[in-house]
Amino acid sequence: MRWYFELEACLQLLLDRPDSALDPEVRALALVGLFQLAHGATPEHAAVAETVEATRALGRPRAAGLVNALLRRFQRERGAIIDAAHRVAQAEHAHPVWLLDALAREWPQDWRMMVTAGNSEPPMWLRVNRRRGSRDEYRARLAAAGMAADPCDFAPEALRLEQPVGVGELPGFGDGAVSVQDVAAQLAPYFLAARAGMRVLDACAAPGGKACHILELEPGLAELVALDVDPARTLRIADNLRRLGLSATIASGDVTQPAAWWDGRAFERILLDVPCSGTGVIRRHPDIKLLRRPGDIAGLGDEQLGMLRAAFALLAPGGRLVYASCSVLAAENAAVTRAFLSAEPAALDVGESARLLLPGVAPARGADPGFALPSGAADADGFYYACLEKRA
Fold first, then answer.
1. Structural domain range at position 77
2. Cβ atoms within 10 Å, residue 53
3. Residue 303 domain-assigned (yes or no)
């Protein structure tokens, strides 16, 4: 999936009749074989032989010869075929052309870095549970277990493993000493700035990473309500709270329909991490390149604006709402918050002062309003934050 657009372009060049229809399963096998030859670690002779054998195993013996010929030709002419495929930007950068155009337009200085990040294996970032010990102490535990990790100067609980491992190998994971969470997502509680005695809403909470981080940083909250529209996903919130030894009020409901779950008491802090295109986390979910369409973005922006309006109505005067997304497209980010601010006189953008709450300088770019982290900067996912307060 990560290299689909490149591999598909190579396949078209290898076919005598590029527009000829291949059986979908044969096409998929050919792409898998090409991936192994171009990017995989499988020995080339095994990649060819096993792909051809898989063609026969699927009951396509007549196609076995075609698949064999395609892969062997690619072996012989690999450089020329890849060079020819890369004459088309979609194949060269392994991203759909509509997304490449959007990134180049909105991120003229950063788009190449962002595309490179999207084609890379993601790092494994950890979030140390401050209630169970310091980051330095946990880093020492990792070192004792033979795992090297680097800290981040703008995310005080973050460590990046040099080599990813299974969570079961992490010291103290089962006991709640650490969680897996990208460094960009770890900024949310700092912008929220929740204090003791406050009532907090995490309006799209599942699987619970940000809600747990908020609770880890401020044990004196009056209440944290972890809300999610999907009842099944609230079970993951409960699992994470249990593992970390934390407590919260878990609710299943839609933030745009508060009558079904809200008790009428306002929140001093609200985190609204909206559903989005996920274009900032393509390296973790490369299927986004194929599943998203350019027509999806406007609809997502409309949905996000509706959620923002509904959540802001639940905010107490003087309270703060943090709007967040893992998209890197302005239509889901600055355009949403700008439209909201222009129509809501009680809302005030306090993003610049909120940035001062970070202990270091994050590699964010002004988005007016809010600010965004481009994918790959500081090896972080792409993310957007806007901090809005309700006038007292």
1. 4-94
2. 12
3. yes
